[in-house]
Amino acid sequence: MREKILEILEDLIPDEEIEGRTGLVEDRILSSFTILNLISEIYDELDIEIPVEDVVPENFDSLDAIVAVVEKYQQV
Amino acid sequence: MHSSDGKKAAKVLILFLIAAALLLVLLDLMLYPCTFMRNDIHAVTSEQQDLVILGTSNGKMDLDPDRIAGSVVRDGEPLRSGHNLCVGGEYPVDAYYITKLMAAENKPKLIVFEVDPGYFATEKEPGNNYLLFHHEFPLSLAKLQYFADAMRNCDIRSALFAPYEYSLLYEIPRVKETLTRKLTGDYDISYFKGKAQEYHENGFIERYPVEEENFASYDGFTFEGNEENLRRNTAYLSKLIAYCRAQDIDILAAVMPLPDVTLDRDPEQFALAWEYFDAFFAEEGVDFYNFNTDYYNAYPHSTDLFADYDGHMNGDSARAFSQVFGHIIR
Amino acid sequence: MSLVSIMFSVFVTVALLLYYLLPRKAQSAVLFGMSVLFYLSYGIQPVLFLVFAVGVTYTAAVRMGALYEAAGNEEDRRAAMASAKKSSRRILIIAMLLNFGMLAFLKYTNFFIDNINGVLSAGLPHLKLLLPLGISYYTFQSVGYLLDVYWQRSRCENNLFRLALFLVFFPYMVQGPISRYGQLAGQLYENHDFDWANIHRGLLRILWGLFKMMVLAEWASVYREAIFADPDGLAGIALFGVLLYTVELYGNFSGGIDIVLGVASMFSIRMEENFRQPFFSVSITDFWQRWHITQGSWMRDYVFYPLTLSGFMKKFGKKTKKAFGKKVGRTIPVCLANLIVFFLVGVWHGPTWGNIGWGIYNGVIIAFSVLMENRYKIWKKALHINDKSKGWHLFMILRTFALINISWYFDCVTSLSKALKMMRYSVTAFDPSLFLTIPAGKLGTDFTPYALGILLGGCLILFCVSLWKERGADPEADVLKAPVALQVLLFLLLLLAVLALGPQSAGRGFIYAQF
C-alpha cells in the first residue's frame, strides 16, 4: 500500500523528495490540482475512494498521513 | 520573555502617544494658517455683538454691519455693535453650531440669516469646510456637539491633523509668522488685504470693483432635483430658528439682490427657489426679505454694482445696500 | 462607518477599554454587544438580514448535529450514520439555498433586470435593493460552517450566542477576511489577558494599513482616474494606468485587511492572513494562493473539491480518460471545475460581464498551464532552461505580474473596446512626461512632481517591506526588537505620513477663505 502510494506520488511530483518529509501541503509541494489527481489515481489503482470531507490539509501533509487516510477507507 | 516584550511595547506605545500628541499640537500651531474665520469667531466670542450676520459669500460681501446696526432697533434701543460671520462654504449646519457657540458666550440680539438658495440644493463636502469653523471654536460644548454631529464621518486626518486640508500646500516659509500670531494672540487684519478684496474689522469683506469683461465665468443656477440635500439643509435651518426662539434671539432671513442678467438666465429655477423659501419662512413665522421678488425695487440690479455674475457686490455698492437693508429691517 | 473614519477609531478605542477593563468573563459579551452596535449603526434593515442568516445557519447546524449524535448512539453505527448524512444533506441544501438565495436576490436582481431590459427592451424598473454591509462575508462564513458540520469536520455549536458572535464579529464586516469556524470561533469565546505587545503589534499594522490606503491608494487613484478618463489624450502613459490600478487596488484592499487584522490583534485575536506578497507570484495559480487568500481557500474547500469529487465529475472523468489517455484525461474534469470556480469568483465580485470575463480569463490561464505542464517541461529541457535559477524565477514573476495586469483591464475598464484600445496604447505609445499634465487632484499640475514623488517613494517602501516579508520576516515582531527610541520614531513617521501626505479631500473653497 505504502509503496504503491509513494509510486503514484513520485509520478505526480517527480522532482521532490517525499519519503520522510512533512509539510507537503503547507510548503505548497502538493497543489490542490495534484491532490485531486492523487485521489483520482488512488481510486484507479487501488479502488479506494477518499470522500470530500477528508480532503483537508492534515490528511495530505505527509506520506504517512496520506497512507493513514487511504487505509481508513480501505477497511470499510 | 513574554513580559519583557510587553514592557518594551508599553514603553514604546506610551512614549509614542505622548510624542504624537505634542507633535500634532505643535504642527497644528505651525501649519494651520490664520484664516479670517479665526478673527470672526474671536470677534463674536470675545465681545458682545448685538447683530450677527450668518450666511454665504454673498452675505459676506454685501452686508457691512456698521451700516446696518445703527438703524435697527431691538428691545427699544438701536443695536450697538455687529459682526458679519458669513463665509463661502457656510451651510445651515455650521450656522446652527456657531449660534450655539455664541449663545453660550455673548448672546446676540438679532441674527440675520442670508439665504443663498444654491447652497440648499448642494451637499456640504466633508472635511475642510467643517474644519474652517470647527478649528476656530474655543473648547466648548458647542465644539463637541458640532464634532459629533458633523465630523464623525470625516476621515481621521480631519480629526487629528487639521492642516491636512492644506496637504502639500503647507506654508513652510510662513511657519514662524503663523506661530507668532497664534501665540501672541495677534488678530491684525492687515494680513487679509488682498489684490481683489479687503477684510474689515467687523467681518465685512469689501470687494474692489471689477469691469464686466473681467467677471469670472458663471455656471448658471439649478434648484430642482436635489430633494435630499434640500431636506437636510432645511432641517438645520429649522433647528437654528427653533434654537434662536428658545434662546430669545431674534432671527430674520434675507436673499441678497442678484444682477438682472443672472436672474434672467434661469428664471424658472429661481422662481422655484423663491416659492420654496417663501413657503418655508411663512410656516416658520420668520420675516423673510427677498430682494429679488417682494423687495426687488428697494435696490437696483444693474451689473455695474456687482463684481461677478454670482452677485457679489463691489464695496461701494455693498455699503449703499447695507444702508438700505438696515432701514428696511428696522 | 468606514475603516478610516474618526468614528471607527473612537469605536474601536471604546470597545478595547470595555474589553480589557471589565471582568474577563464579560469579554465575549463585550465583543458581541459592540458588534451588534456597529451593525446597528447602518440601520435596522441590514440587521434583519443578518438575523435571518444567523437563524437559518444556527437551526440547520443544530438539527444536523442532533441527527449525527443520535446516529452515533445506534447499534449499527455505520448504517445509522449514512442515513443521518442523507437527512442532513436535505437540511444542508435548504439552508444553503436560503443563505445564497438572499445574497443572490439582493446582489443580482437588478443585473438580471438590466439584461432582460437589454435583450427584450422590456423597460422593467430597478428594485430598490441595498446590499447590507458584509452580507457576502457572513453568507460565506455561514455556508462554510454548515458544510463543516455536514462533513463532521466541525462540532455543531449549540449555543446561539456563540454562533452569532462568529457571524457578527465587527472587524471583518467591511472588508473580510472570510474566517473558518474552527480557526476563529474558539478565540472569540476565550478570555484574553491584556498584553501591550498585542496593542503594539496591532497599532503598527493599522498605521501601515492606513498608509497603504490613504497615501498610496489615494494618490494612485487620482492619476489612474485621469488616465482612464482620457485614454486617447494620455495614450503615452496608458501602461501606467493599469499599473496604478494595481497600486490602488492592492493598497486599498490589503491596507484595509491590515487595519482589520490589526484591530483584531488588539483584542488578542488572530485572524487569517488574506495576502501574502501577491506580486512575487510565479504563476496565476500561485497568485491566487497569495491574493485574497481566504476567498481562494474557501472556494477551494467548499466548491472546487466537492465539485471535482462529485459523482457527475467522476463519471465525466472516466470518459475523458478513455478519450484522451490517463494523464490528460484525469486533468480535464479538474480544469473544468476550476473554470466554474473562477466564473463564480467573477460573479461574486460584482454582477457585470467585465467581472465574469475577468474570472474566466483567470480560470482559462490556470487550466491551460496545468494542461501544458508536461509540454513546458519538454520545452524547457530542449531550450536548456534551468528553472531553479534566479533569472528564471524573476522572469516568471514578471510574466505573472504582466498577466495579472492584463486581467485588470477587464475589471476596471468599462467597455471591451476601451480595454483593447488601452492595451494597444500600452505597447505602442510611451511618453511619461504626460504625467506632468495631470493635476495633483485639486492642487493643479504644479504639485504633480511632489505627488508622483510620494507615490513612487511609497511604492518603494511597500516593495522593500514585501521583500522583507517574502524572505520570511515578521515585521511587526521584528520591529519590537529594535531600540525603543527607534520604534517611537518609526511610529511617528508612519503617523505623520498618513496624516500629512495624502491628496486633499475637498476643493479650494477653503484656500480661498484665507486669500
Descriptive account of the structure:
The complex is a heterotrimer of chains A (76), B (330) and C (515). Chain A has 76 residues and is mostly helical. Chain A has a single domain, classed as ACP-like (Non-ribosomal Peptide Synthetase Peptidyl Carrier Protein, Chain A), CATH 1.10.1200. Chain A contains three helices and no strands. In chain A, α1 crosses α2 (32-46). The longest helix of chain A has 15 residues, at 32-46. The radius of gyration of chain A is 11 Å and the shape is globular. The two termini of chain A are 16 Å apart. Chain B is of the alpha/beta class. Chain B has one domain (35-129, 145-151, 188-329): 3-Layer(aba) Sandwich (Rossmann fold). In chain B, 49% of the residues lie in helices and 9% in strands. Chain B has 14 helices and nine strands. In chain B, the strands form three sheets. In chain B, strands 4-1-5-8-9 form a five-stranded parallel sheet. In chain B, a hairpin with a 2-residue loop joins β2 (73-74) and β3 (77-78). In chain B, α5 runs antiparallel to α8 (141-151). The mean pLDDT of chain B is 91. Chain C has 515 residues and is mostly helical. Chain C is globular and about 80 Å long. The two termini of chain C are 34 Å apart. Chains in contact: A-C, B-C. The A-C interface holds A 28, 31-33, 36-37, 39-41, 44, 51-53, 55-56, 76 and C 78, 151-153, 285-286, 289, 300-301, 304-306, 308-309, 317, 326, 330-331, 334, 338, 370.
